[in-house]
Design brief:
Helix content: 10-25%
Order of helices and strands: HEHEEHHEEEEEEEHEEEEEEE
Number of domains: 1
Low-confidence stretches: none
Number of strands: 17
Strand content: 25-35%
CATH class: Mainly Beta
Radius of gyration: 18 Å
CATH superfamily: q2cbj1_9rhob like domain
Shape: globular
CATH architecture: Sandwich
Length: 287
């Protein structure tokens, strides 16, 4: 049964983030946790099977593993069992219900495992769309809690209403020596908004199986873990491309993904389905 209510939709529109409890059951949480732990173990051992040819949409796997912090990006395109788990779940239907999207595509997935109390378990303040060549309202991140996340276990924090910003911010992850487009502001301004005395910072605790949906412009981060009582903090995120999303590169973001270089891509148009397949369509189920 779909867990989304009109109250969840209204909260997402108002705050740019919403918490929906119990979207995934214990069996799904165990299934996904097992797949992620299997991949992390194989990557640590150097035995993860890699693709032999470049993918037109997805970059290769990125794997960061240090000081109790694991960041694993782009796993799903190379792990069919993980893709199937997501397609078998209520993930796509939940995202569509919250955003109003009539079709969805997978884009970026990311796994975050945090163990111990090192400062590296924090996630710096940022927002996602700053680095994207894709733009639209239907471009959210679905954040899944695979462990309980209380106030001491690096809960996600957001700046409420920041998804309504008309500006983008010049991320420190992007080239600093290129002309800044008119709709970009310095990164220091993003940080100043977060640290302002009247900043409306929301802290989102969650139980395993809960989700947060985060608008692509919402400014968010997470403090370091303050207690090891929970063992670890494990979350899986999946960024979706919905029905209103268009390709709109600029000098800062151009070239961040393989599809940017595909000859069928057209500025201010949706990515062609032959390049970037739809995996869910309203009324048709998943592909």
């Amino acid at each position: 049964m779909l867990k989304v209510t009109q109250s969840h939709v209204d909260t997402y529109r108002e705050l740019g983030t919403v918490h929906v409890p119990g979207v995934f059951d214990r069996a799904f949480v165990a299934r996904l946790t097992g797949l992620l732990d299997e991949a992390i173990g194989q990557l640590r051992a150097g035995s993860f099977p890699r693709r032999t040819a470049p993918d037109p949409v997805f970059r290769d796997i990125e794997f960061e593993d240090h000081d109790g912090y694991v960041r694993l990006v782009n796993l799903m395109p190379q792990m069919p069992a993980l893709r199937r788990a997501i397609l078998d779940s209520p993930a796509a239907e939940t995202v569509a219900a919250l955003t109003g999207a009539t079709s969805l595509r997978f884009w970026l997935d990311a796994t975050f495992s945090k163990v111990g109390l090192a400062k590296e378990t924090a996630t710096p303040w940022h927002n996602d769309e700053c680095t994207f060549t894709l733009q639209g309202e239907h471009l959210p991140s679905l954040w899944m809690a695979l462990t309980d996340v209380d106030a001491d276990n690096s809960p996600l924090q957001t700046l409420a209403g920041s998804h309504r910003d008309r500006f983008r911010y010049h991320s420190t992850f992007l080239p600093q020596d290129r002309p800044r487009p008119a709709d970009y502001r310095p990164w220091d301004e993003l940080l100043a908004r977060v640290h302002a005395p009247d900043a409306d910072i929301r802290t989102w605790t969650a139980e395993a199986g809960d989700i947060l949906l985060i608008h692509p412009k919402t400014i968010h981060g997470a403090p370091p873990r303050r207690s090891d009582a929970g063992g670890r903090r494990l979350a899986f995120t999946l960024r979706w491309v919905g029905s209103d999303v268009v390709w709109r590169p600029n000098p800062l973001t151009l070239g961040l993904a393989p599809f940017d270089r595909h000859p069928a891509m057209a500025v201010d148009a949706p990515p062609p389905e032959e390049v970037f397949p739809v995996v869910w369509r309203r009324g048709a189920g998943s592909a």
